[in-house]
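Hi V.,

You were right to ask for the full record rather than a summary. Here it is.
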Amino acid sequence: LRFAKRSSPCVSRIHNSIHRSYATNNYPDVSSHPFRSMLYVPASNTRALEKLDKLSGSMKPDAVMFDLEDGVGPNNKEEARTNLLQFFQNRKTASSSPNDYFGIVRINRVGTPWFEDDALMALKMVMGKETNVSGVALPKIEGRKDVDLISHHFLSLSKDDASFISTENENGQVSPVVSPVPLWAMVETPRAILAASEIACHPSVQGLIIGTNDLSKELRLVPPTASAIDFSSKTTREGLSTSLQLTVLAARAHDKIVIDGVYNNFRDEEGFRRECVQGKHLGMNGKTLIHPNQISATNEILAPSAEEIEYARRVVACWEDTTTANSESVSFTGVAVLDGMMIEQLHVDSAKRLLEQAAKIDSME
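Predicted structure:
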């Protein structure tokens, strides 16, 4: 960098990204929390809300997205907010212990007539800590400026004096505005895909959620129909593959959660399971769901399998045995061998992460 001109656009982008990284948040760490299944529940549907605490065992979702946006008609927005408030009020007085899923509220986007009321209610829910709503999902996020704008709005709602919101770091650079509550960015447009990394690196963003329906529309992909799908193929999402991979790449680069899009045909279990497997192989943390019937298969597929757990244990044991046996050897190269396969520290780290995930899932079920 010292040989490049300081005015170079490339150098400026690098310096800006370094300066932006100074901003931090105080959100709870969710890196080890399972997000295999994230069920959409329209807040206008009281029947669906009432059923949530009756879901148990393999049918219990890891996370629930209470939807005030696409799942609620324009004439039902106020009713949906009222329903959601009443739902959590009822849970407080319930005699039985309610489910402890990770709750997220999806609000309407900036510029709509419902944004401000949605945002205020969501903020109170997360900051009040009387509900298990832990974050706010933002639709149609397309870049850092969108996240900054909403973070600024949430911070201004939570402070009497928001004049300090735009802060400078020690180098005089303006840091990103950090929301007082964790934000989850809906990645559902071509612009969002191309800006996935700058969205994921924002300190207010806790996770990325891929909106495959909106994205497919924006990409002008041919809508899948029963007659058009070749169910013998491994996947029917070829047109989305680059977008899915770029989003996973951005999430992993900045250590954020990434959730796959929905599968619309909730009666097609074979196709749904295949898409879950594809998402797992891509590196997704979980999948958004439109129907409770999809929860069990998602939890099964996106959890470590018995075979994966056993192999992970063998990797850790092999590494420990090898390093112990070579603790005083000057010729030890830092490589172990298991079933003819080379094992290094990075493989051990992955194995331990899988075992931690499995243990966390076991503790929840």
